[in-house]
From TrEMBL:
GO CC annotation: plasma membrane
Pfam families: 7tm_4
Cell compartment(s), UniProt: Cell membrane
Record's protein name: Olfactory receptor
Domain G-protein coupled receptors family 1 profile: start-end pairs: 41-290
Native organism taxonomy: Eukaryota, Metazoa, Chordata, Craniata, Vertebrata
Family: Belongs to the G-protein coupled receptor 1 family.
GO molecular function terms listed in the Swiss-Prot or TrEMBL record: G protein-coupled receptor activity; olfactory receptor activity
TM annotation in the entry: 20-48, 60-82, 88-120, 140-162, 200-228, 240-260, 272-292
Keyword Transmembrane: yes
Length: 316
């Protein structure tokens, strides 16, 4: 049969979590709450960094980039995920599905670059404190941020072009709660080994290279901190790094498990659970991890609240 005659699929069906057995409303409420908290937490970081001049520093500039990314990273996936909890059959048009896959992996790739840039910032701040102000200028920070976003875009761009050209026929069932690349390739009615290989190579390059740079940065950071004579100085230096190190550990642990395997068709069920944690839990925890022990952010928050109260009292 001619392939063009077979390519009749116009939309995909997302299976979501069919094994929940009557708990869909409970999970809908839980995911919705986590999504709202994610938007509020990351939005809080953006607003506080923008308003308070004390946070106009490279570290918080990169943190605001990360917060902005996390808002869109969850928004790309969660609305459709919520729909799978309330509908027995959740459909998505092919173009919408492929666009969702592109933005999911574009933002995910960009996150690795931003975290690597943040490690570089901490390395320079702790290991090269005298040179730090001269190196981390506003122009250089902007260039690093733009480079991270451009790097994430280019990392997925060429693979996306090939995926957009895939023909789909017969099956239109995606065994996932969003348009992950593995389930998409599984139902394509053509050979996808080249795309799988490109995706695997991209994942190895981005994840392992950024992980290596992060490990090297923190090797020098920890070595420098251990050489600080005073216990108070070591504690203060460690406190500026622990939040970032925690986020890196959570993110890389989940992603290494999911994507650094040549066969993307395997273990969809387990991948779905890990993807749920990576899509919801990490963006939710990031604002709390970065702010709960950060005195500057807490002081900035108190300042914003105080100003707001003063304005309200003045108006009334």
């Amino acid at each position: 049969m001619d392939l063009q005659n077979k390519s009749m699929v116009t939309e995909f069906v997302l299976l979501g979590f069919p094994f929940l057995h009557g708990l869909h409303i409970v999970f809908f409420s839980l995911v919705l709450l986590m999504y709202i908290l994610t938007l509020m937490g990351n939005g809080f970081i953006l607003i506080v960094v923008m308003i308070d001049h004390r946070l106009h520093k490279p570290m918080y500039f990169f943190l605001s980039n990360l917060a902005f990314l996390e808002i869109w990273y969850t928004t790309v996936v969660v609305p459709k995920l919520l729909q799978t909890f309330v509908q027995t059959s959740t459909t998505i048009c092919i173009f919408c599905c492929l666009v969702q896959a592109f933005f999911h992996f574009f933002l995910g790739s960009t996150e690795f670059f931003i975290l690597t840039v943040m490690s570089l910032d901490r390395y320079l701040a702790i290991c090269k404190p005298l040179h730090y102000p001269a190196i981390m200028t506003k122009t250089f920070c902007l260039q690093l941020a733009l480079g991270a976003w451009l790097g994430g875009f280019m990392a997925i761009f060429f693979q996306t072009i090939l995926v957009f050209r895939l023909p789909f026929c017969d099956s239109n069932i995606i065994d996932h709660f969003y348009c992950d690349i593995g389930p998409i390739l599984k139902i394509a009615c053509t050979d996808t080994h080249l795309i799988e290989l490109l995706g695997f190579l991209a994942a190895v390059t981005i994840i392992l290279t950024s992980l290596f740079l992060n490990v090297v940065s923190y090797f020098y950071i920890i070595s420098t901190i251990l050489c600080i004579p005073s216990a108070m100085g070591r504690k203060k230096a460690f406190s500026t790094c622990t939040s970032h190190l925690t986020v890196i550990s959570i993110l890389y642990g989940a992603v290494l498990f999911m994507y650094l395997r040549p066969n993307v068709h395997s273990s969809f069920g387990l991948n779905r659970v890990v993807s749920m944690l990576n899509t919801l839990l990490t963006p939710l925890l990031n604002p709390f991890i970065y702010t709960i022990r950060n005195k500057e952010v807490k002081e900035a928050f108190r300042s914003v609240v105080t100003k707001k109260k003063s304005l309200l009292n003045h108006n009334f």
